[in-house]
Specification:
This protein is mainly β. The chain has a 16-stranded antiparallel β-barrel with strand order 1-2-3-4-5-6-7-8-9-10-11-12-13-14-15-16.
Length: 426
């Protein structure tokens, strides 16, 4: 159904609210919805009274181009978009690989000015079949109930609001071909879970998200990847364990955002239903993750940093019950990174909308930071990386990337890797 402002002067107040409720779909509120004036009353009609404060639902990205629904608010209320990346990785210790790493389609719909739906369908590695390595996944699928600026409802399959890249995971939105190691080995991005909760903006620049979420299956925990293979992603997930996740973002000045996240839940070493294995005797395994990050932008300069610590309870008993030969499950995993970048075109063509960003990043991730007493850590899973590269954006929606990574380990030889990518977002 189209909204015709010429034929509905009596609904001016409602139209004003609808224009403010630009549909977006995000796991966080990190932006400002632009104020649009209400249609003026027609001759002889009284001026509409101001309505209540409405939630600001613009997509919390670093640029406004990531809000496809908001680009055409007068159309029926449905929208389509997507993003993806084609990558080339040439490591020193393995063959070079070209991969359509991900191709994601976005679908959204606003049922009313207060109820909206958002979803993402992802295809990984180009081909998905029983004989191929690709996958087809539902990355997000949730409903929002928009009440007012400070309090709104969300339920469905939701991206966990932990870290920068897990939230802002579209390839054009971050520098480098590959995500930082902390967002791969400590924070299992892209991390999504069934969730029900609230979100909003309590004051200017102070935003929050709070959800009740499903827990992990500890049967997937490993020495190399920590909890990464244990998140259940709403795929016939064991529902007996649950927890909560909270994120708070504060923007003290325009262009600088600081965030903190916390996650706590229980998990169990639950065998697959068709495996025939007996239930685990370990019981509930406590799991917690804390994270803090900051990002800033000033003229052509930008920087970001993040630190995360993961805690796994009963690590010794879990190691004994899983596969001790693969290495111990660590009771702690730690990671951090710091990145600085500058737009080189500011020096030679300051008026252009194009950007050529040079960046450097130091990255650390250790999934064997605190193994149980009496067990030896797998030091090759302690990783240090230095990455330097260029990102050219002819328009904000397209990023062409090239970088070089030097990786060092707690044990074993160093490796290096050249990488490049074509990425897009629409």
């Amino acid at each position: 159904m189209r909204i015709n402002i010429r034929d509905r002067a009596a609904g001016a107040a409602r139209r004003r609210r609808l224009l403010l409720l630009l549909l977006a779909a995000v796991p966080a509120l990190d932006g400002r919805a632009s104020e649009e004036p209400a249609a003026p009353p027609q001759q002889g009609q009284p001026a509409p009274e101001p309505g209540p404060a409405q939630p600001e639902t613009a997509l919390p990205r670093e640029t406004a181009i990531e809000n496809p629904l908001g680009s055409a608010p007068a159309v029926a209320g449905s929208a389509f978009g997507g993003y993806g990346e084609l990558t080339l990785n040439a490591p020193s210790n393995a063959p070079a690989v070209i991969d359509l790493r991900r191709f994601v389609l976005f679908f959204g719909h606003d049922f009313t000015d207060r109820i909206r739906f958002y979803s993402e369908v992802e295809v990984e590695h180009a081909v998905s079949s029983a004989d191929d390595r690709g996958e087809v996944e539902i990355e997000q699928a949730f409903l929002d109930g928009l009440l007012e600026k400070r309090l709104n409802l969300r339920g469905g399959l939701v991206i966990m609001p932990v870290g920068i890249v897990n939230v802002y995971h579209e390839p054009p939105s971050f520098n480098g071909v590959d995500r930082p190691d902390v967002d791969t080995f400590v924070i299992p991005s892209t991390w999504r879970e069934p969730a029900l909760g609230i979100f909003g903006e309590l004051a200017e620049g102070l935003r929050y998200q709070l959800y009740l979420v499903n827990g992990f299956n500890a049967n997937g925990f490993t020495a190399e990847f920590a909890i990464r293979e244990g998140h259940q992603e709403a795929q016939l997930a064991q529902a007996g364990d649950y927890g909560a996740v909270l994120r708070v973002d504060w923007e003290p000045v325009l262009g600088t955002v600081m965030g903190v996240s916390g996650y706590a839940a229980s998990s169990r070493n639950t065998p697959a239903a068709d495996s025939g294995a007996p239930p685990s005797a370990i019981g509930r395994i406590p799991l917690a993750l804390v994270e803090a990050d900051v990002r800033t932008r000033w003229h052509g300069f930008s920087a970001r940093a993040e630190v995360a610590v993961l805690f796994i309870g009963k690590a010794a008993a879990l190691t004994a019950e899983l596969d001790p030969a693969a290495g111990p499950i660590s009771s702690q995993s730690r990671g951090a990174y710091a990145e600085v970048a500058y737009d080189l075109l500011r020096l030679v063509a300051p008026s252009t909308a194009q950007t050529l960003t040079a960046f450097a990043r130091f990255d650390y991730a250790d999934t064997q930071a605190a193994v149980p007493a009496g067990l030896q850590p797998r030091l090759e899973f302690r990783r240090y990386s230095e990455v330097a590269g260029l990102v050219y954006r002819p328009i904000p929606q397209i990023a062409l990337k090239a970088d070089f990574r030097l990786r060092q380990y707690g044990a074993g030889p160093d490796t290096h890797e050249a990488a490049s990518a074509v990425t897009w977002l629409f």
